[in-house]
UniProtKB/TrEMBL annotation:
This is NAD(P)-dependent oxidoreductase. Pfam families: NAD_binding_11 (PF14833), NAD_binding_2 (PF03446). Keywords: NAD, Oxidoreductase. SUPFAM superfamilies: 6-phosphogluconate dehydrogenase C-terminal domain-like (SSF48179), NAD(P)-binding Rossmann-fold domains (SSF51735).
Length: 297
């Protein structure tokens, strides 16, 4: 059986994913809009393709890790791409996209006999590189089962199956990113009020991240928020966080589900963008709480 993998997109998550694929022994073909970025992978054995369709032509499994719905649809809604994935091939979409985009892609691929599995990932680049990320999957049952062992090999410490609806994994991913954003806002507000009462921001989060809020979001993001250094260790840029909050609110609007906290987080991100912070990590939304309280420089 041909277990060759194609990868389209070599951003902050795509590059460590490519290295994991090669380290796991899978034949790999890659494509990136900026070809120079792919050159280090060629030295490690990857084949560099000149187009997304060329990636699909030579790979049984094609992974896309692109920044947004527009970029993903521009590549994968082309008939040539789906034709090259072909019968027996599977497109694995790891991007954070709108649920309706996932349904559209699955329907389009089915017209060419190609499989489609949504597999968005939770984890910053370092976690992905260490194969300590978590992945949600949804899509046609047979395709999901074929994809799971590969995801376990290259990225995931855990895989969570959300069934046949190709949009379900993206619903979960957006819900999760909303919860992360809400947690960052909560941490920022708590640290700000503690600081104004003479308590160390770092001491506060050190306690909570080890006790009643033990977990990677409070431990890792909490430390960044305590230090208030948002332009270092940028794993997920602030504009992408805003894109995701916009998708969360779009998803909620389609089913008449009010999300006032999501609107607050979106507002923090919009404000940060307006102040020229587009190169910050998205944890930078937390800076707004200190600004409001007059504790930032």
């Amino acid at each position: 059986m041909n277990e060759s993998i194609g990868l389209i997109g070599l951003g902050s998550l795509g590059m460590p994913l490519a290295e994991n694929i090669l380290a796991a022994g899978y034949p790999l073909t890659v494509y990136n809009r900026t070809p120079d970025k792919a050159k280090p992978l060629a030295d490690k054995g990857a084949t560099i393709a000149s187009s997304p369709a060329e990636v699909a032509q030579g790979s049984r499994f094609v992974i896309t890790l692109l920044s947004d719905d527009v970029a993903l649809k521009a590549v994968t809604l082309q008939d040539e791409f789906a034709q090259q994935v072909g019968a027996g091939g599977i497109h694995i979409s790891m991007s954070t996209i709108a649920p309706q985009t996932a349904r559209q892609l699955a329907d389009h691929h089915a017209g060419f006999g190609a499989g489609y599995v949504a597999a968005p990932v939770f984890g910053r680049p370092a976690a992905l590189a260490a194969k300590q990320a978590w992945v949600c999957v949804s899509g046609e049952a047979k395709a999901r089962e074929l994809v799971k062992p590969i995801l376990s090999d290259i990225v995931a410490q855990g895989i969570y199956d959300f069934g046949d609806d190709p949009s379900a994994a993206n619903v979960v991913k957006l819900a999760g990113n909303f919860m992360i954003g809400a947690a960052m806002e909560a941490m920022a507000e708590a640290m700000t009020v503690a600081e104004k009462n003479g308590v160390s921001r770092q001491a506060l989060i050190d306690m909570f991240a080890a006790t009643i809020f033990a977990g990677p979001i409070y431990r890792n993001y909490g430390s960044m928020i305590a230090r208030q250094v948002y332009d270092e260790n940028v794993g997920f840029r602030l504009p992408l966080g805003l894109k995701d909050m916009n998708l969360v609110l779009q998803m909620a609007g389609e089913v008449n589900a009010p999300m006032p906290l999501a609107q607050l987080v979106q507002g923090r991100l919009v404000s940060a963008m307006a102040k020229g912070r587009e190169n910050w990590d998205w944890t930078g939304l937390a800076y707004g709480a200190g600004e409001d309280a007059g504790t930032t420089n």
